[in-house]
UniProtKB/TrEMBL annotation:
<feature type="binding site">
    <location>
        <position position="114"/>
    </location>
    <ligand>
        <name>Fe cation</name>
    </ligand>
</feature>
<comment type="similarity">
    <text>Belongs to the KAE1 / TsaD family.</text>
</comment>
<feature type="binding site">
    <location>
        <position position="304"/>
    </location>
    <ligand>
        <name>Fe cation</name>
    </ligand>
</feature>
<feature type="domain" description="Gcp-like">
    <location>
        <begin position="26"/>
        <end position="310"/>
    </location>
</feature>
<feature type="binding site">
    <location>
        <position position="186"/>
    </location>
    <ligand>
        <name>substrate</name>
    </ligand>
</feature>
<dbReference type="InterPro" id="IPR043129">
    <property type="entry name" value="ATPase_NBD"/>
</dbReference>
<dbReference type="InterPro" id="IPR017861">
    <property type="entry name" value="KAE1/TsaD"/>
</dbReference>
<feature type="binding site">
    <location>
        <position position="275"/>
    </location>
    <ligand>
        <name>substrate</name>
    </ligand>
</feature>
<keyword id="KW-0819">tRNA processing</keyword>
<dbReference type="GO" id="GO:0002949">
    <property type="term" value="P:tRNA threonylcarbamoyladenosine modification"/>
</dbReference>
<dbReference type="InterPro" id="IPR017860">
    <property type="entry name" value="Peptidase_M22_CS"/>
</dbReference>
<dbReference type="Pfam" id="PF00814">
    <property type="entry name" value="TsaD"/>
</dbReference>
<dbReference type="GO" id="GO:0005506">
    <property type="term" value="F:iron ion binding"/>
</dbReference>
<dbReference type="InterPro" id="IPR022450">
    <property type="entry name" value="TsaD"/>
</dbReference>
<feature type="binding site">
    <location>
        <position position="182"/>
    </location>
    <ligand>
        <name>substrate</name>
    </ligand>
</feature>
<dbReference type="InterPro" id="IPR000905">
    <property type="entry name" value="Gcp-like_dom"/>
</dbReference>
<comment type="function">
    <text>Required for the formation of a threonylcarbamoyl group on adenosine at position 37 (t(6)A37) in tRNAs that read codons beginning with adenine. Is involved in the transfer of the threonylcarbamoyl moiety of threonylcarbamoyl-AMP (TC-AMP) to the N6 group of A37, together with TsaE and TsaB. TsaD likely plays a direct catalytic role in this reaction.</text>
</comment>
Amino acid sequence: MKDIYILGIETSCDETAAAVVKNGREVISNVVASQIESHKRFGGVVPEIASRHHVEQITLVLEEAMRQANISFAELDAIAVTEGPGLVGALLIGVNAAKALAFAHQLPLVGVHHIAGHIYANRLVTEMKFPLLSLVVSGGHTELVYMKEHGIFEVIGETRDDAAGEAYDKVARALNLPYPGGPHIDRLAHEGKPTIDLPRAWLEEDSYDFSFSGLKSAVINTLHNANQRGETIDPKDMAASFQASVVEVLVTKTVKAAKAYGVRQVLLAGGVAANKGLRTELEKQFAKLKDVELVIPPLSLCTDNAAMIAAAGTVLFEKGKFATMALNGNPSLEL
Ligand code: KG4
Ligand code: ZN
């Protein structure tokens, strides 16, 4: 069978990325220009700044991805681009670049859901075995997604308020840690002890949904009350206590869903997959479930990148699900 080469483009948030992937499984090139330094001083992603950076970077990143892959446009089979969800002004840069290239080189165009991309990052490291469950945890999403076959996604649980990464970033801010706060809390958590009593949002007995805003408020209130009383709380212990709550809920619900749905694999996805506490606890719990394989991709594929978009796009290409030149950025696209 002929090999399929797809150019992926991702600009949904603060990373401008392009990549070439072979047969939906093999990374040929993977270029990411991060804007984190530009957003740091604002304590979060500023949409207008993100769009401007994407405009500046997109051509350079695309050229570099094609150069590293040592491939011509004539050798590509399609162009896959993140169509949503994300920041609309950011999405539009990638979508328009993809449309321009598809038109100029007469290539098919494929619109990819950003979360499908995060899940398909796993296919770049292993074979996907169905039925499977994916825990998607990032700055914008916290979802448990069940898949019976390629390209079919069933969201069985999601956050009702803040995403896990968002909660990490907000708690980090309350502790005066730099943006993005996830890695800083993770590091401090390992130096502290989970001695502070914080809530766990289990929600209804049969629900796989999540909620992190109550936990975030509990951290902020505890810090505020201690401050009022002239007491100090060790940020290490607060980080450890916060992380213990997040990890306990994420892991318990994932294990419960994996058993209930009888899955063969559990795939971790999204930037929060970098969290050492989460990785360790998932590994510990899934080691007990002999029939379920836990997959955790390397960090470079967990955070936003375009190889994952090309990987997810390959499935759509194979199913003949092409986009037209009317493709638009959709900030609230459903999976
Ligand atoms: O997937 P991602 O790169 O971008 C989005 O699509 O959101 O995820 C970024 C998020 C940020 O909220 C960041 O704080 C969080 O992932 N993150 C972490 C860690 N590393 C990154 N959260 C907890 N622990 C970490 N080690
Ligand atoms: Zn993402």
